[in-house]
Amino acid sequence: MIFRKKTRLRYLIGLSLLLLPALLAAQTLDSYIQQAFDNNPALQAKYKDFEAALQRIPQVSSLPDPALAFGYYTSPVETRIGPQKARIALTQMFPWFGTLGARKDAATLMAEAKYQLFLDAKNELAFRVTAAYFPLYETKEMLRLQKENLGILESYKQLATTAFSNNKGSMVDVIRVDIMIDDSQTQIAILKDKIKPLETIFNKLLNRPETSPITIVDRYDVSRAATVLSKDSLLVKNPQLKSFDLKIRSAKAQEKAAFRNGLPKFGIGLTYAFIDERTDVNVPDNGRDALMPMFSMTIPLYRKKYSAAVKEAKLIQSRFTLQKQNTENLLFSAYDLSLFKIDRARQEFVLYSEQIIKTQQAINLLHTAYSTSGKDFEEVLRMQQQLLKYEMAQATAVQEYNTALAEHNYITGK
């Protein structure tokens, strides 16, 4: 009886009173998401991938190492001013103008694309944590409801037993309650078993021990329409699409670099020759070492490799363009589906809230009638199970609503 009064009061007060615990829950969930950001190894690996891409920039935008050569003549080469014993040469090659800049642009843009993929992985992780949190909420809420239902059924059994003792009811009523009690106890055991794997999934997303405690809020109100982003925001905010744009630009810079790689490369250098003095005759500059500036240029005659590199870059651009188009199609489809799921779950939550109130009113009337006449006990039990069905369906609606909203936020890059 006390349970029925509390239940009725809980739903008659107004769903707006549930906003405060919902806000507290959001803070709790946000803290879990932040823990996942800090600890999840898959996300950390994505960031390492971005950091590794940054290290490519100085590698591709630097000049090649200068070449130093030393030669020693086993038989000195006679010159007018003396025998040449050895020489040393230093040469620096330079690619065609703009080549290094194009390589740097390609590597920088690819690193930015990697960072967008990291942001997408971060958003996906937030969605996965949310999608793992609310099944826990749903299961624990169902467990709570089943326990409350078991307590009510036990009070009904006592009532039916008393009615049978007073010749106002039948033994069948007692047996019916026993059947429902057994069913409720079995469901409670199953729900308890279900919690452990759900907790493991959640804790492993946060990269912490699977037995770590998890705080789950006990009530949620999803009767109000959520604030959602327009479909156009997909093209602006979604990190996956941003990543493809950057990859396309990187491939274009790669194409420029590939074309310039097929142009001549220039080299400048110095050669220093070591010359001994002549002993047979005295000549001007006798034994004076020689210094010779040098200029060199490569001649890219074999064009196949350069043409293939340019074509490869163009094909990569086409590949990224097609992948972006396919991703856009998938995201647009997922966007519409997520909105449908959000609205459906909200409507179901509102419907079940109303049905719970009406069903509880019917139970109160049937219970009063049974206490007086001992009739319609089967209908009392049926309505009690109907109430449990609506309450559990409401918990499912909360889970589906929040999961769909998290999916929507992930799709739109919110």
How would you characterize this protein structure?
This protein is an alpha+beta fold. The protein has one domain: Outer membrane efflux proteins (OEP). Helices cover 69% and strands 11% of the residues. It has a 4-stranded antiparallel β-sheet, with no helix packed on it. The N terminus is likely disordered.
The assembly state of the depicted protein chains is single chain
Strand content: 5-15%
How would you spell out the order of helices and strands?
HHHHEEHHHHEEHH
Helix and strand content put the structural class at: alpha+beta
CATH topology name, in short, is Outer membrane efflux proteins (OEP)
CATH class descriptor: Mainly Alpha
Number of strands: 4
CATH architecture: Up-down Bundle
How confident is the prediction overall: mean pLDDT? 88
Low-confidence stretches: 1-24
- CATH homologous superfamily? Outer membrane efflux proteins (OEP)
Concise structural overview:
By secondary structure, the chain is α+β, with helices and mostly antiparallel strands.
Please outline the helices and strands:
Blueprint: H1 2-13, H2 19-39, H3 41-54, H4 56-60, E1 67-79, E2 82-94, H5 99-165, H6 171-205, H7 233-237, H8 239-261, E3 266-275, E4 290-297, H9 304-373, H10 377-411
Antiparallel strand pairs: 1-2, 2-3, 3-4
Entry keywords:
single chain; 414 residues; Outer membrane efflux proteins (OEP); four-stranded antiparallel sheet; 10 helices; 11% strand; disordered N terminus
